[in-house]
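Summary of Year 1 activities. Much of the first year was spent building the evaluation harness for sequence design. The harness presents a backbone, in tokenized form, and records the residue chosen at every position. We chose the following record to illustrate the format because it has been used consistently in internal testing since the harness was completed.
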């Protein structure tokens, strides 16, 4: 998580050769390439050895996995941006696809295919490869020359939409090529390699779109029990349509396209990634079109009829990830639960990829998070180190906020009503330190909700929150005048908002995830914090402050 958010967990990749090693050979089941969960959501012991063949073991995460309902899908943290050396020197890429090889290939366990795309220049959009042993630090392996396929020769032609997988001892990299400025249609090609360094000849899959009728984009390929499946998006259809084809091998012949449906989301998919997980098919889809949009998860039992989450998988933030483009995932065992290890493309400038985890147990995740918050509030109200101020506002109704349980007296414009601070105006409290980290729950149904930090007086302070409209509002009040600080983060209405002040750096968190940061040198000695509302609809609970 960028900036060290409070609810983050440290990623520690375990030795993949040890996964399932304790199961005797005689008890090993037949290889399915995936693990099938039993009715209790557990992995049968007989199938554990084969997790290491297709699922990356990640020891990050705290909560058990119960089911794979797309409505429960959520990213656990904002993406951590990653660097990739590109032939043009910019490091900007899109269209990521990642494969995990437990025993490694040429000394690397993770392989990434993507296309450079600096300044949206399609001439650079040619398939390139990188490798890693942790899925975070990517290098171009010694001896590999990128790109592995140059730009198509006809004027106006370009490559895009890479997909990589490992099958039968070979890396196979697919990509989409638009030739002759699209007049001859779009073709899907592949190259294969036994070492990731030396790549075989460019080979046609035989899949070609009719430029007058269809536009096949974003091929997503997986292999199940020897059968190859390819999903594509028809970008010309309105709304856009997904298809699936199958073949005995990557060179085809491929079956006639079958229509794939997605219900539950209003998004029209533009780019996708699809994998078989147990007896389900999981899809990561990017909506919004070629200019980027939101990401959502979808799950299917038959690979043709998908149910999608009605909400975005991860919020939009400010900067590179102010919207998303083609992204990818691999099924991952995260502390004993099935989830996704995901690499997302942030389509803001610069175009970069970043990593996050996805879990399908929002109820369990949120309950455990809530439990931790309760413990924090109890400690803050007792002023236990490192907490400075704590106030849940859970006392009897009163005409003013009064004194916090941690001992400080509020300068208050609010009342206590139904176990919350309520009303218009501002309430402030002394923390004793200028580098403070303040957090409060916005529980009102409408109206303005602000957290105040680096508060010097009513005319000089920072306030962050919502004015009842769209988006996160970040403002500096100086000499009584409002100076807005632009950002693209979503509204914190109804959520827990935190602001961490450290020197000139301000980091803003919504429900424990950093969504924006900025620097400002004003009011660096101001030590008060507080909150501000606009009327009885403005309600606050569980304010905590700790030293930053």
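For this record, the design step produced the sequence shown next.
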């Amino acid at each position: 998580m960028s900036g060290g958010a409070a609810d983050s967990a440290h990623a520690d990749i375990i030795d993949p050769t040890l996964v399932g090693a304790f199961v005797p050979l005689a008890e090993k089941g037949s290889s399915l390439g995936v693990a099938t969960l039993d009715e209790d959501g557990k992995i049968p012991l007989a199938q554990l050895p084969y997790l290491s063949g297709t699922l990356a073991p990640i020891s990050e995460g705290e909560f058990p996995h119960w089911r794979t309902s797309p409505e429960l899908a959520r990213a656990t943290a904002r993406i951590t941006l990653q660097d990739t050396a590109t032939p043009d020197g910019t490091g900007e890429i899109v269209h990521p696809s990642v494969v995990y090889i437990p025993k490694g290939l040429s000394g690397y366990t993770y392989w990434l295919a993507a296309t450079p795309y600096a300044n949206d220049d399609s001439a650079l959009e040619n398939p390139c490869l990188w490798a890693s042993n942790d899925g975070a630090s990517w290098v171009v392996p010694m001896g590999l020359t990128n790109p592995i396929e140059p730009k198509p020769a006809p004027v106006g032609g370009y490559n895009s939409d890479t997909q990589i997988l490992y099958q039968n001892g070979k890396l196979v990299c697919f990509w989409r090529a638009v030739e002759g400025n699209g007049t001859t249609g779009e073709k899907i090609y592949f190259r294969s390699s036994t070492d990731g360094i030396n790549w075989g000849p460019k080979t046609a899959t035989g899949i070609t779109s009719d430029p007058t009728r269809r536009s096949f984009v974003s091929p997503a390929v997986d292999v199940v029990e020897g059968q190859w499946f390819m999903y594509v998006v028809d970008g010309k259809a309105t709304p856009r349509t997904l298809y699936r084809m199958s073949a005995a091998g990557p060179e085809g012949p491929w079956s006639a396209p079958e229509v794939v449906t997605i219900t539950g989301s209003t998004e029209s998919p533009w780019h996708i990634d699809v994998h078989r997980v147990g007896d389900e098919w999981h899809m990561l889809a990017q909506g919004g079109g070629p200019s980027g949009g939101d990401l959502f998860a979808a799950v299917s039992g038959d690979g043709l009829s998908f149910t999608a989450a009605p909400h975005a998988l991860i919020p939009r933030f400010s900067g590179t990830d102010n919207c998303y483009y083609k992204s990818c995932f691999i099924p991952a065992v995260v502390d004993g639960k099935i989830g996704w290890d995901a690499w997302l493309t942030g389509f803001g400038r610069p175009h970069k990829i970043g990593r996050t985890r996805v879990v399908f147990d929002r109820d369990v995740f949120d309950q455990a998070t809530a439990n931790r918050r309760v413990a924090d509030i109890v400690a803050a109200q007792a002023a236990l180190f490192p907490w400075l101020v704590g106030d849940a506002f859970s006392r009897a109704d009163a005409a003013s906020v009064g004194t916090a349980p941690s001992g400080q007296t509020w300068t208050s414009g609010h009342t206590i009503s139904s176990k919350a601070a309520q009303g218009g105006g501002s309430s402030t409290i002394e923390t004793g330190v200028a580098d403070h980290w303040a957090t409060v729950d916005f529980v009102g149904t409408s109206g303005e909700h602000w957290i105040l930090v680096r508060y010097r007086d009513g005319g000089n302070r920072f306030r962050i929150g919502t004015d009842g409209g769209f988006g996160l509002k970040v403002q500096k009040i100086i000499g009584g005048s409002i100076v807005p600080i632009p950002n693209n983060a979503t509204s914190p209405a109804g959520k827990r908002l935190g602001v961490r002040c450290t020197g000139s750096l301000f980091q803003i968190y919504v429900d424990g995830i950093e969504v924006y940061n900025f620097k400002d040198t004003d009011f660096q000695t101001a030590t008060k914090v507080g909150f501000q509302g606009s009327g009885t609809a403005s309600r606050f609970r569980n304010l905590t402050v700790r030293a930053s």
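The chain has two helices and 33 strands. Quantitative recovery figures across the full test set are reported in Table 2.
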